[in-house]
Backbone:
């Protein structure tokens, strides 16, 4: 048996209400590219954070070259020969390439006590050559580089650091590196990664299956916090891996399917030919009263931007949005709210909720005009309105004056929904409504979504898992690379299985 | 580049407006001598701005240093006569006040603009208490050269300021501390992740800035030939304007000593020109304010600030 470079042994990690990893075993060997795939929420990012020392595992251990390692953070990890290229990048945009490459390790470039810019530039040039950028001037400011160039610089930095620390064959972790790249840049990246294999091991995380199958020597499929399968390149097919990713049977009643009511016939929201340059084009949608439509697609499929356009926070380049037959032009979310379109964003804490305000203030936020008697707000009406919606939405809060920061994730989400209901929206966009919410609260959210639909509100949702999408929605609209590829009905009792759908997504 | 154009524009504008007098060697020399101390203060402040922080305590610390220096140099109030030994002592006092700014920012985790605002008034108050409101005459002739001395037509204060600027430039471009400063100004979280001891660097920068305030205080009382607890009054605004006009981004990480030099020259020339054109002092104030706002509007990186408070 070969000696592994980086190994996770029975690693477990739980967050409040969720077991993110349940005893994961994973080993990266010298000179190989290991692909790691899994749905959103399968535990990929948690596993990475543990491998790089950003999080500590609750159980199990990490081994570097066979020896148990306690990693204090990315800086300690790279000393042990494990480096990661983060999705959002960790280069300083205001510094030059050379300064970024050697940041915090400039000792070797001293001359007469001062740092020699020429020596740094010369060394940086050598490092850039190694990652296929021989013509890039090391004095270029990083902020001016393209996404792929930044990735290469990060890779160069990790390789240089590992050599500095005298580590042979470092392990590089790449988190969804291709989402920010153009097609030709992806090819270049893969060329370079294949060459780097001779001096490093690469853990390549992606949910674009074709890419992983093309690049990786072995593929690890993560499902619900466990390793569902470990495949060699020859064994794996896109469909087979997809099947492993979505795995088990759809649990009956998981998403309160029995409460699914038939939507009305009249259209509430009609979208025609909507497009946003570089993101999506030719998007159309007919949303009936009380209908739940789920937008399905990978990160970068354009579904997020569609929702942003619908909720007024981005302006589409082309196409029309009709709300109850009237043509809408949203200059800002305010216009969308006024027209009756609400949005529950994925990032509750930053976007959906003013966590430093109390429950009542949050619920009343959009309807203050209605709650005033004369020029001043009426405290009585404020209390009444907030109290009514807290009851309606079953928000568990000690009082109306409790700060939202002190509520659980599930109750925060209910406050956000209560706010929109108070504003009497006709269309509600739910962006990952159950993200970070524990199982019990999820069920209440599902029930709430059903009730909203039954009461005649139309919903556009994007969920954490495909099962949730299928379970909740009347209809799936599947997007890939900015276009709708399939429109699939999900009637009660005849829901498609995730396996029928996954092929269209990846 | 924009700074050079701005300076050329100011020179040209007032050159035409004063029918050439503004550009006469005599007036240019006046501008240089006026710009000496403001340049030193601007160099002090721009270091803090570079790391993405803010220092408003300038006037308080300079007043405090001036009062203390006044009592250490030969004076009518006590028997002390430390001569040039005053310089290291006053620099140390400034450094101590500056390091306090840094500690409040890093250890107490306060926004630096508010902690240094408080420090301004604390130091100002202590200066008035120590000085009992008196002006202290300076009786030591050895400080005379800093009043109006020149070397090759350039005022000595200006030479000192340029020397300091050169030192800081080397610090910024060719030392690890300098690289760390830019990294912190660029993104503090990423800098910390890269392994930089962010808090230490920040305290160090605030301390250095405080020491430079001490230097400014000594040059200031040499020029006035006396010290008083209001010595620092009115120095913050032009220096801050110079920082912004020079192109040092108030969001941190961009700019350097060269920008401070250009900024100070632009602001000093602008004010000198307005005086020569006999523009009302109130209008002058308003113009300075507009220049500050316009310069910040042009150099601020709003993406980095997110929510602007």
Residues:
């Amino acid at each position: 048996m070969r000696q592994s470079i980086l190994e996770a042994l029975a690693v477990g990690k739980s967050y409040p209400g969720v077991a993110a990893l349940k005893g994961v075993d994973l080993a990266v060997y010298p000179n190989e590219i290991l692909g790691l795939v899994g749905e959103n929420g399968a535990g990929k990012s948690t596993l990475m954070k543990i491998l790089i020392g950003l999080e500590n595992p609750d159980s199990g251990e990490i081994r570097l070259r066979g020896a148990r390692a306690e990693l204090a953070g990315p800086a300690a990890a790279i000393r042990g020969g494990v480096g990661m290229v983060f999705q959002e990048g960790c280069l300083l945009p205001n510094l030059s390439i050379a300064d970024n490459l050697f940041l915090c390790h400039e000792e070797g470039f001293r001359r007469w006590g001062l740092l020699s810019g020429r020596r740094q530039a010369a060394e940086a040039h050598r490092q850039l050559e190694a990652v296929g950028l021989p013509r890039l001037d090391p004095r270029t400011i990083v902020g001016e580089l393209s996404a792929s160039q930044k990735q290469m610089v990060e890779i160069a930095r990790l390789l240089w650091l590992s050599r500095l620390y005298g580590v042979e064959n470092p392990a590089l972790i790449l988190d969804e590196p291709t989402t920010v790249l153009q097609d030709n840049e992806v090819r270049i990246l893969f060329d370079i990664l294949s060459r780097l294999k001779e001096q490093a091991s690469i853990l390549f995380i992606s949910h674009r299956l074709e890419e992983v199958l093309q690049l990786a020597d072995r593929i690890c499929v993560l499902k619900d916090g466990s390793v569902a399968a470990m495949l060699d390149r020859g064994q794996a097919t896109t469909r087979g891996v997809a099947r492993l990713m979505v795995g088990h049977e759809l649990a009956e009643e998981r998403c309160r399917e029995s409460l699914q009511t038939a939507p009305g016939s009249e259209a509430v929201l009609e979208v025609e030919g909507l497009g946003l340059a570089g993101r999506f084009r030719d998007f159309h949608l007919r949303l009936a009263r009380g209908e739940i439509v789920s937008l399905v697609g990978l990160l970068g499929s354009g579904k997020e931007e569609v929702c942003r356009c619908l909720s007024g926070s981005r302006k589409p380049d082309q196409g029309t949005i009709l709300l109850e037959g009237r043509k809408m032009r949203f200059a800002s979310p305010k216009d969308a709210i006024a027209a009756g379109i609400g949005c529950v964003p994925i990032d509750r804490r930053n976007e959906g909720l003013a966590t430093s305000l109390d429950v009542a203030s949050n619920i009343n936020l959009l309807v203050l005009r209605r709650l005033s008697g004369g020029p001043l707000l009426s405290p009585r009406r404020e209390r009444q309105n907030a109290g009514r919606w807290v009851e309606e939405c079953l928000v568990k809060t000690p009082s109306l004056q409790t700060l939202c920061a002190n509520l659980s994730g599930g109750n925060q989400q209910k406050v956000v929904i209560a706010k929109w209901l108070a504003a009497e929206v006709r269309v509600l966009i739910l962006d990952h409504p159950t993200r970070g919410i524990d199982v019990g609260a999820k069920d209440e959210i599902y029930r709430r979504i059903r009730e909203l639909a039954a009461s005649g509100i139309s919903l556009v949702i994007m969920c954490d898992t495909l099962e949730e999408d299928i379970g909740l929605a009347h209809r799936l609209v599947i997007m890939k690379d900015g276009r709708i590829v399939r429109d699939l009905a999900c009637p009660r009792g005849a829901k498609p299985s995730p396996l029928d759908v996954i092929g269209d997504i990846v | 580049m924009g700074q050079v154009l701005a300076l050329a524009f100011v020179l040209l504008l007032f050159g035409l407006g004063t029918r050439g007098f503004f550009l006469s060697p005599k007036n240019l020399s006046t501008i240089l001598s006026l710009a000496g101390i403001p340049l030193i203060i601007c160099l002090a402040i721009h270091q803090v701005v570079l790391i993405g922080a803010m220092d408003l305590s300038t006037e308080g610390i300079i007043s405090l240093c001036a009062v203390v220096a006044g009592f250490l140099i030969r004076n009518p109030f006590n028997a002390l006569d430390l001569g040039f030994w005053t310089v290291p002592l006053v620099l140390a006092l400034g450094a101590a006040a500056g390091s306090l700014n840094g500690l409040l920012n890093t250890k107490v985790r306060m926004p630096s603009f508010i902690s240094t605002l408080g420090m301004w008034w604390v130091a100002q108050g202590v200066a008035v208490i120590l000085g009992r409101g008196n002006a202290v005459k300076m009786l030591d002739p050895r400080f005379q050269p800093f009043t109006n001395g020149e070397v090759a037509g350039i005022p000595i204060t200006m030479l000192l300021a340029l020397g300091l600027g050169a030192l800081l430039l080397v610090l910024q471009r060719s030392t690890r501390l300098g690289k760390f400063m830019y990294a912190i100004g660029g993104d503090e979280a990423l800098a910390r992740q890269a392994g930089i001891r962010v808090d230490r660097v920040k305290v160090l920068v605030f301390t250095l800035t405080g020491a430079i305030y001490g230097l400014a205080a000594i040059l200031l009382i040499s020029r006035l030939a006396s010290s008083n607890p209001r010595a620092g009054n009115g120095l913050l605004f032009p220096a801050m304007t110079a920082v912004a006009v020079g192109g040092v981004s108030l969001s941190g990480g961009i700019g350097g000593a060269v920008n401070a030099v250009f900024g100070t020259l632009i602001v000093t020339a602008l004010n000198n020109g307005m005086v020569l054109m006999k523009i009302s002092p109130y209008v002058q104030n308003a113009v300075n304010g507009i220049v500050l706002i316009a310069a910040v509007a042009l150099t601020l990186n709003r993406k980095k600030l997110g929510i602007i408070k």
About this structure: Chain A has 17 helices and 24 strands.
